[in-house]
Design brief:
This protein is mainly alpha-helical. The protein is 42% helix and 4% strand. The strands form three sheets. A two-stranded antiparallel ribbon has the order 1-2. A hairpin with a 2-residue loop joins strand 1 and strand 2. The radius of gyration is 49 Å and the shape is elongated.
């Protein structure tokens, strides 16, 4: 079956309609032609190439659209020259202050061209280029741009010079995480460390940045620390004790160079020493600590391994302290003279935490309250209205007036004050109802008459109230 003849004008009408409908120009693989039946763009392209169906031939769909509609013909793109590509790259640097890369997008100086197409042509040898190159390689060779495949070799002398400059600026030595190297644009300390480890760029593999600084600058390398011995650690502990008057702990002087004796132990800290004693390594077996070492060889008390306590032993210390001072011990009392290695604070803490052989069901204050009758402010005895009235009557017989909140200690109740009674009555403590006061309580129980008012004080002396048969009245004023 013979196909109908075609004309250039008809093909252009179909192409225009396709562009209006899809927003792009047809290509040979665009399948069916709109506004007609049975036609395909592939068949039209073959007819233009062969000269079939009344067409002149030796053309193509892409060439026809390029000539008549300005469509970019990818089959006949203009040739590239390295000089032209470099001029585009120079213009890109002038605009963006950086060199172009494969993903830098379109090239304004060459409409329709992109840096991706340039890189592809350089690599595949298209559009008049020799091939086996790339955009990065071209810029490295012709413009000196850093390219990871064409890096300059390193030298030990240059690396050490960079490290010295870094130390002068930052007062510390660089690590593989120290970022860019200022005197060598584009280079990083991570790249130097990697080249020392794996070799390359003129360096022999098997080293590292910490090893290099340790060898040539004496910098402490945490992966290659010197061996330790008990004798050396004890010598450092003795020096610390002479200097500070205290024995070192795990956290003593950690990261504080001004406290380290650099003449004795350069760059060492008690934290790292304790870690080596605990975990092993650096010539030590492990399973120990600074505290245990000092306890064994210097008789320094170890807070995590203190001797056991008993109620009898603690009470003997309490009685001895009471005989000497006439007071019962507290947290602030300090050292126990009968056991200089102990303090009352540590003993009271053991009662609270239930450590050092103590059950933890009794506090130090409760022990003194039960075994020595010492007043425990956290467990005060309950009060009753009858008891308070008895104390008030006794106070009145002795002083001739009724007590107030400023009347001080209650002679009949060891350790209690009239202010405590006032607080218990107001807040409802120690078995008393809430919402009263000492004055209202005495008035309620007819110890103070209605006309008296609150027994205020003048200065530090209580106001003396006169007692009459009919009750208590205010003193007459002149």
């Amino acid at each position: 079956m013979r196909r109908p003849h075609l004309s250039i004008s008809q093909i252009l009408v179909w192409a225009d309609f396709y562009h209006e409908r899809t927003g792009r120009w047809p290509q040979r693989h665009s399948r069916f032609v709109y506004n007609t039946v049975g036609e395909k763009w592939y068949n039209i392209d073959m007819a233009l190439r062969r000269g079939d169906r009344g067409l002149p031939g030796k053309s193509s769909l892409a060439q026809l659209l390029a000539e008549r509609r300005g469509y970019r013909n990818f089959e006949r793109l203009p040739a590239f020259r390295e000089r032209t590509i470099l001029s585009w790259a120079d213009a890109y640097v002038a605009r963006h202050q950086k060199w172009p890369a494969v993903k830098s997008g379109p090239i304004p100086e060459a409409p329709g061209e992109t840096w991706t197409s340039v890189d592809s042509a350089l690599w595949k040898g298209l559009r008049g280029l020799p091939g086996k190159s790339s955009l990065a390689q071209l810029l490295a060779e012709r413009r000196g741009v850093r390219h990871i495949k064409y890096l300059l070799p390193f030298s030990i002398k240059a690396i050490l010079a960079w490290a010295d400059a870094y130390y002068r600026r930052h007062k510390r030595w660089p690590t593989h995480r120290s970022g860019l190297i200022a005197p060598a644009p584009g280079e990083t300390w991570g790249a130097v460390h990697s080249a020392l480890q794996r070799g390359g760029r003129g360096l022999t593999k098997g080293s590292s940045l910490p090893q290099l600084l340790e060898r040539y600058r004496g910098v402490r390398n945490i992966h290659h620390l010197p061996r330790l011995t008990y004798r050396k650690i004890l010598r450092w502990a003795d020096s610390y004790h002479r200097r500070t008057g205290k024995w070192p702990m795990r956290i003593s002087c950690a990261l504080r160079p001004r406290h380290r004796d650099r003449r004795v132990a350069p760059s060492e800290s008690w934290g790292s020493i304790n870690s080596a004693l605990h975990n092993g390594g650096r010539g030590l077996l492990g399973g120990s600590s600074v505290a245990r070492l000092l306890q064994k060889y210097r008789a320094v008390p170890n807070k995590s391994n203190l001797p056991r306590l008993t109620y009898g032993q603690v009470l003997r210390w309490v009685d001895a302290h009471h005989r000497r001072t006439g007071q019962w011990p507290r947290c602030q009392t300090g050292t126990i003279l009968e056991s200089p290695a102990e303090t009352w604070r540590a003993v009271i803490a053991a009662f609270y935490r239930g450590t050092r052989g103590l059950p933890g069901d009794c506090s130090f204050a409760q022990l003194l309250s039960i075994r020595r009758g010492v007043r425990n402010i956290k467990r005060l005895p309950k009060l009753s209205g009858k008891q308070i009235l008895t104390w008030a009557d006794n106070f009145h017989r002795r002083h001739g007036h009724w007590p107030s909140t400023r009347s001080g200690l209650i002679q009949d109740a060891e350790g209690d004050t009239w202010m405590n009674i006032e607080s218990a009555l107001r807040l409802g403590l120690r078995g008393l109802p809430k919402g009263s006061s000492l004055f209202r309580f005495l008035k309620k129980h007819q110890r103070i008459s209605e006309s008296v008012g609150h027994p205020l004080t003048k200065g530090n002396e209580p106001r003396r109230l006169l007692h009459r048969e009919s009750g208590i009245t205010r003193p007459q004023t002149l």
